[in-house]
Amino acid sequence: MIYLDNAATTKPCDAAVQGILKGLEVFGNPSSLHRCGVDAELLVSDARHAVAESLGCLEEEIYFTSGATESSNTAIFGAFKSQGKRRHRVVTTTVEHPATARPIDELERLGCEVVRISPDENGVISAESIIDAVNEDTFLVSMMLVNNETGAILPVGKAFAAIHRRFPKVITHCDCVQGYMKLPVRVKTLSADLISLSAHKIHGPKGTGALYVRKGLHLPALVMGGGQEKDLRSGTESVPLICGFGAAVKSLAGDLNDRLERARHLESYLAEKCAENGGATLNYTGEKSPYVNSISVAGLKSEVLLHYLEKKDIYVSSGSACSKGKKSGVLAEFRIPVQNMDTTLRISFSAETTEADIDALFDGIKSAQAELAHLR
Ligand code: PLP
C-alpha cells in the first residue's frame, strides 16, 4: 500500500495504539475520587503534559476536545459570546478549513461583520493585509497556519503579534492542524490566544484533539454538562483517545527537524518527478509546508485518476477541490490556473513516506496517461 493522503488522516503509530489500549485497561472515570478514577486522571494529565510541552505552554492551557472541529467551534463561538456584544467585526481568510469557515459564516448570520482576506495575485496572504483589516470593532481574528489543500504557510505569528500590539483586546485564533508536529509550532512565536489541534493528523487516533487557551482568557463553554476540562468542555474525557494522542505527541517530539528535512527532500523529489513526467505540474510553490503538495496531471480528471491509482493500491486525495461533491473554492483563491483545477491531486507525506512511494505514484500516473488517453 502506498499511502499519500496524510493530510486527510494518518496511520496511528504503535505508541498511539499502545496508549489507547492502556487507556482502555485503566477504565476508571477521571472524575471519580477513588483510585480507579485517580489512575485514569493521571493518564489524562500525562497526555496533557506532553501536548503542553510540544507547544511550549502550561498544562492548564490545554483542553481536550473531540478534535479540531470542536476546538475551532469552541474558540469562535466562545469569542463571540464573550466579546461579540460590544464589538462585532471578525477578520479571517478565504482559505480556511470549513471547521473555521462555517462557524464564522454562522456569526455573520448572527449579525457580525465578517472580513475575509483573499490571497493576492501570487496566491500569497500578507500579514499586512490581515493587520489592516483589524479595527476597534474587531473582537476575533482567525487564520490557519498551513492550508490543507496547497500547504501554503500563512504569516500567523507576524500578523497576530502586530494585532496584539495595536489592539490588545482582539482574540486571535489559529487552526494549527496541518502544521502541528510538522513545523516548529510554539505558542510564543504564533502569538495566538487560541490554537486548534487534531490528533489523527499526527499518527494519533480520530475523535480527539485539543484547544490551547491562553491563561487569563476566559472562554464560555460550547458543550455544557458535568464541568470536565475546567468547565470549558463537559463530558467524561475519552481517556483511551487522549492517551493515544499523548503517546503520538511523545513519539514525534524528538525529531521534528529531521522529519522536516526529509519532507523537504521529498517535496523536491516530487517536483523533479513532475518535471520529468512533463504532463504533471506543481500547483503551489510559494512559502509552504513540504508535507502537503498540490499537483495537476494534464488531461486526467482528479477523481478518474484517484480511482485509477486506488486500483494499484496507491492512495491520494482529489485535492479537496471537491469534498464529497462540493467544490471548496480554496484552490481558485490560491490562483491555481482554471485549466488545472479539475485535474488536481493532493499528495501529502508523513514521516514514513519514501522516494520509492513517489516513484510508485509516478509509475501509476504514467500508466494512467497511456491507458486513459482516450478520456482526454
Ligand atoms: N483544520 C484543518 C486545516 C484540517 O485539515 C482538518 C481536518 O481535515 C480540520 C481542521 C478538522 O480536524 P478534525 O478532523 O480533528 O475535526
TrEMBL record:
Cofactor: pyridoxal 5'-phosphate
GO molecular function terms noted in the UniProt entry: transaminase activity
Record flagged with keyword Transferase: yes
Gene3D superfamilies, per database record: 1.10.260.50, Aspartate Aminotransferase, domain 1 (3.90.1150.10), Type I PLP-dependent aspartate aminotransferase-like (Major domain) (3.40.640.10)
Taxonomy, superkingdom: Bacteria
Keyword ATP-binding found: no
Keywords, alphabetical: Aminotransferase, Pyridoxal phosphate, Transferase
Every Aminotransferase class V domain range: 2-361
Pfam annotation, one family: Aminotran_5
Name of protein: Aminotransferase, class V
Organism of origin: Ruminococcus albus 8
